[in-house]
Amino acid sequence: MKKIIILLMAAVISMPMVATAASGGAPLLTAPIDINDKESLRRGAKAFADYCYSCHAASFMRFNRIAKDLEMSEDEVREMMIHTRGKKGDPTKIGELMKVSMTEDYAKNAFGTAVPDLSLTARARGADWVYTYLRSFYVDPYRPTGFNNAVFADVGMPHVLWSLQGLQEPVYKKVMHGNVEVEELDGFEQIQAGTLSRVEYDMFLGDLTNFMVYIAEPVQVERRSLGWKVLLFLIVFFGFAYALKKEYWKDVH
Fold first, then answer.
1. What is the 3 state secondary structure string of 161-176?
2. Is domain 2-218 annotated with CATH 3.40.50.10800?
3. pLDDT digits (tens, 9 = 90+) for 24-72
4. Following CA atoms 222, 73, 64, 31 in sequence, which dihedral angle do they give, to the nearest 10 degrees?
5. Kindly report the CA angle at 190 between 189 and 193, in degrees rounded to 5?
6. Is 13 in contact with 19 (CB distance < 8 Å)?
7. What is the pTM of this model?
8. Reported confidence tier of residue 129, pLDDT bands at 50, 70, 90
9. CA gap 51, 62 in Å, rounded
10. Measuring CA to CA, how many Å separate 196 from each of 90, 146, 188?
11. DSSP assignment string, the chain
């Protein structure tokens, strides 16, 4: 029993260390997620279409599902998000999956690695990771793209949002770990302004992250609503079951 308690305490103590390691040493920020906010999701869908969808697929999602869930007409979704054509030159249909034409070989030649599908990224990495990652690009002249990332070191992805965010450099502070002095990330310093202010850019990323959380599990709003109904049913059913048990066992007790 003592060994089990010790293991549980060690797991709890190591949780912040695991979170820091998962974020590449940079503390994760809290993403402003509200999948019930349809306006935010619509803005996020446009941001995804404008800045992500040309390279990254979301091949588990269909355009008409977005139109239904975000309360948009199919024409609105078609105009905002569909900019591709099929092999025969026909416009991509509203019922098709969100795939891209970029091949894996082309991606490896251009970026050094295959471009990941973003369907489940927010679910696998977490919304806070996605939000912090998109805020943490900084200028690095030693990288092929000219940028690096404090959350994902030596990332192959270029900073496609730099014109919105502007350019920033990392600021480090010296911290003692035992008898060893090391440098830790202390934030970023803006060296060139973007077209958006800091607040506007954070709101932009919040909407984009919100949309990525939605496409990672489109049914989650319905699932949560159904969950409360199931719990209510179980509570009522427990009352009937308990009353039935009392009736069966009243002569025994």
1. CHHHHEEEEEEEEEEE
2. no
3. 557 899 999 999 999 999 999 999 999 999 889 999 999 999 999 999 9
4. -50
5. 175
6. no
7. 0.79
8. very high
9. 18
10. 36, 21, 16
11. -HHHHHHHHHHHHHHHHHHHHHTTTSPPPPP---TT-HHHHHHHHHHHHHHTTTT--EEEEEHHHHHHHTT--HHHHHHHH---B-TTSPBPPTTSEE--S--HHHHHHHHSSPPPP-SSHHHHH-HHHHHHHHH-EEE-TTSTTSEEESSSTT--S--TTHHHHEEEEEEEEEEEETTEEEEEEEEEEEEEE-SS-HHHHHHHHHHHHHHHHHHH-TTHHHHHHHHHHHHHHHHHHHHHHHHHHHHHHTTT-
Question: Scanning the structure block, which residue is given the tokens 């977490």?
Answer: 126
